[in-house]
């Protein structure tokens, strides 16, 4: 696990000191070793750097940049099946000098080219400089566990694991990408491939990038497509057979993520996902696995459930109850670690539990993606209900009902924002064909009303231009939001949150439920195996019940939640005064100060209907103060 960074400068204006500063910003991602080097070519400079958190082959043999024949690599992540690939490569005559998976990647590239990635089980952002072909190749893992940012403008290509490294290069121009502000206010994060800066992008999960050093041509293409997987003909196998196959896949994916030369632990929340991972791994082990849970004085406290599960499974469990002050002290650090506006408040407990785990281990398994893979979010249940309600209306009447709903939405006063948005969403969705209806409904359910954001933003330039009339062979309409969440919410919110939180304390996070073999199999099962209209994550729950009694698991779905709104009205009110006063709002120039202040006043009076907007504005303003001053 590492941080990687570098550049290709076609104007030859970069220096060693620039690359050194870029590498040093990533020290928290890899405190064990660092390296960088610049090659001055006739037409450009190639700089590559890395900071290393030693996990596999902790010797100096894993130092990067690493060279083999005509290739140089910097790499962030783990290829868990590297030993099997290495064994296969030896049959072809390859000889190895180290025990690192990095060397295996280089040899695999020599043997199979960029298609070698299709053999990798793991999480990774890989950059290879091919001197013979005179090209740079960047590859990001299928789910997007490991980040990859790049800046491409004015004949310079700069890349990094985090945006902060780009700031250290003098040719990086940090100009706001204003069109994404509306998106951030809607979701609390910025969707790939966009970022907060112009000419700066995230390489999307499951994609490869190639920069030709001869003609400066940049090409990006997909090597893994989840939508195509969902469109395949469903695998009609008996339910019990599917359970057996998933259990075997879970065992394989969990065991792969135990591959390490340093101590490994597990984040245990007590929910089905983390319990599945923990129970599977502890089952046939004599040594006790280390599990970690954070509890809170306020908000949702999962610690008692986690403790009960840990006691039953028999892990070496560590629990820590955080004070509100400890949680609040994390907030000023968020803009630094998250680089661009990011408003998922569960980053706070994720950083705290990472700090707790890092005292004992260097790697921690996290059970993210269970909801996206097995249909676990409550929003999927609501989505189903909305679609059924629309089916009650005869097709011939739907255009008329849409117009009537639109008029009703217009007449609903602004102080009834939630109802107004629900009715307008219904109006915009009901008269469309079934697939378009589902796609549009999913899109609108997650967005603020357009008139609200237009009042909030000084320069709202982001018109809705999403094409909802595309053709799709997805079999079940509920798979539309599931696919969307896996491709967007999961990498750009959940995995971003876990990566930055764990890396902030030099802890490697691993995600067993993101094994691509698992999603490929589960996506092609009959949908009712995952959600039968009553039970969400049905098949996963039935698997967990083979290890854990029902009585320990049957409780309402929870998650990391903190009383952020309560804090903002009391203990943290000073943050609003400091970063969201009229002067600060005018300085950033993003929001309409008068309207924002009116919303804060309503918020303080408990009269604001959409309270998440206050936290999002605050996170944006704190980010702006940290990175744009």
How would you describe this structure to a colleague?
It is built from 27 helices and 17 strands. It is of the alpha+beta class and 629 residues long. The chain folds into four domains: 223 residues, Glutamine Phosphoribosylpyrophosphate, subunit 1, domain 1, CATH 3.60.20; 220 residues, Rossmann fold, CATH 3.40.50.620; 99 residues, no CATH class; 64 residues, no CATH class. Helix 9 links the parallel strand 14 and strand 15. Helix 12 packs across helix 19, helix 15 packs antiparallel against helix 16 and helix 16 runs antiparallel to helix 17. The radius of gyration is 25 Å and the shape is globular. The two termini are 31 Å apart. The relative contact order is 0.12.
Question: What's the topology here?
Answer:
Elements: E1 2-9, H1 16-24, E2 33-40, E3 45-52, E4 66-68, E5 71-79, H2 82-91, H3 101-112, E6 122-130, E7 135-140, E8 149-153, E9 156-160, H4 163-166, H5 181-187, E10 200-202, E11 207-212, E12 218-222, H6 226-231, H7 239-256, E13 264-267, H8 272-282, E14 290-296, H9 303-313, E15 316-322, H10 324-328, H11 334-338, H12 347-358, E16 363-365, H13 370-374, H14 378-391, H15 398-411, H16 417-430, H17 434-445, H18 450-456, H19 479-503, E17 508-510, H20 516-523, H21 538-544, H22 550-553, H23 564-569, H24 573-579, H25 582-588, H26 593-604, H27 612-627
Parallel strand pairs: 13-14, 13-16, 14-15, 16-17
Antiparallel strand pairs: 1-3, 1-9, 2-3, 4-5, 5-6, 6-7, 7-11, 8-9, 8-10, 11-12
């Amino acid at each position: 696990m590492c941080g990687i960074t570098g550049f290709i400068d076609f104007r030859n204006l970069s220096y060693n000191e620039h690359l050194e500063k870029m590498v040093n910003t990533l020290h928290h991602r890899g405190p064990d070793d660092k390296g960088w080097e610049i090659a001055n070519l006739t037409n450009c400079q190639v700089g590559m750097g890395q900071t290393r958190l030693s996990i596999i082959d902790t010797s100096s043999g894993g130092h990067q940049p690493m060279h083999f024949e005509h290739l140089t690599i910097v790499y962030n992540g783990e290829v868990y099946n590297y030993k099997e690939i290495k064994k296969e490569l030896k049959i072809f005559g390859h000889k190895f000098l180290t025990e690192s998976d990095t060397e295996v990647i280089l040899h695999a590239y020599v043997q199979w080219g960029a298609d070698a990635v299709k053999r990798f089980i793991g999480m990774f952002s890989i950059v290879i400089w091919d001197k013979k072909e005179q090209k740079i190749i960047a590859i990001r893992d299928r789910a997007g566990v490991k980040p990859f940012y790049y800046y491409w403008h004015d004949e310079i290509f700069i890349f990094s694991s985090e945006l902060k490294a780009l700031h250290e290069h003098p040719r990086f121009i940090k100009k706001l990408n204003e069109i994404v502000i509306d998106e951030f206010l809607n979701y609390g994060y910025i969707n790939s491939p966009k970022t907060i800066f112009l000419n700066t992008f995230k390489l999307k999960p499951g994609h490869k990038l190639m920069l030709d050093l001869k003609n400066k041509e940049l090409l990006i293409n997909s090597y893994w497509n989840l939508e195509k997987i969902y469109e395949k003909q469903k695998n009609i196998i008996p339910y019990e057979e599917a359970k057996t196959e998933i259990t075997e896949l879970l065992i394989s994916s969990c065991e792969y993520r135990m591959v390490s030369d340093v101590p490994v632990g597990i984040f245990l929340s007590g929910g089905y996902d983390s319990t599945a991972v923990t129970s599977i791994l502890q089952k046939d082990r004599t040594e006790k696995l280390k599990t970690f849970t954070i509890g809170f004085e306020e908000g949702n406290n999962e610690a008692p459930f986690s403790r009960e599960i840990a006691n039953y499974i028999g892990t070496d469990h560590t629990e820590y109850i955080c004070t509100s002050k400890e949680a609040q002290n994390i907030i000023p650090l968020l803009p630094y670690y998250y680089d661009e506006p990011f408003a998922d408040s569960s980053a706070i407990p994720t950083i705290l539990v990472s700090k707790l785990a890092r005292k004992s281990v260097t790697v921690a398994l996290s059970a993210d993606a269970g909801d996206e893979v097995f249909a676990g979010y409550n929003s999927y249940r609501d989505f189903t209900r909305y679609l059924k309600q629309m089916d009650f209306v005869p097709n011939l009447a739907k255009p008329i009902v849409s117009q009537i709903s639109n008029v009703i939405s217009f007449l609903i006063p602004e102080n009834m924002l939630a109802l107004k948005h629900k009715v307008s969403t219904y109006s915009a969705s009901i008269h469309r064909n079934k697939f378009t209806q589902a796609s549009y409904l999913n899109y609108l359910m997650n967005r603020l009303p357009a008139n609200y954001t237009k009042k909030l933003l000084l320069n709202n330039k982001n018109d809705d231009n999403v094409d909802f009339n595309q053709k799709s062979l997805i079999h079940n309409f509920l798979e539309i939001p599931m696919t969307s969440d896996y491709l967007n919410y999961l990498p750009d919110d959940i995995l971003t949150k876990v990566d930055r939180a764990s890396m902030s304390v030099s802890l490697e996070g691993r995600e067993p439920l993101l094994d691509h073999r698992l999603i490929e199999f589960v996506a092609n099962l009959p949908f009712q195996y995952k959600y039968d209209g009553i039970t969400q994550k049905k098949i996963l729950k039935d698997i967990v019940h083979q290890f854990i009694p029902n009585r320990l698991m049957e409780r309402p779905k929870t998650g990391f939640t903190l009383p952020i709104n309560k804090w903002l009205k009391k203990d943290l009110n000073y943050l609003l005064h400091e970063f969201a006063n009229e002067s600060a709002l005018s300085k950033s120039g993003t929001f309409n100060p008068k309207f924002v202040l009116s919303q804060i006043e309503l918020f303080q009076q408990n009269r604001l209907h959409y309270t998440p907007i206050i936290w999002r504005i605050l996170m944006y303003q704190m980010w702006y103060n940290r990175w744009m001053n």
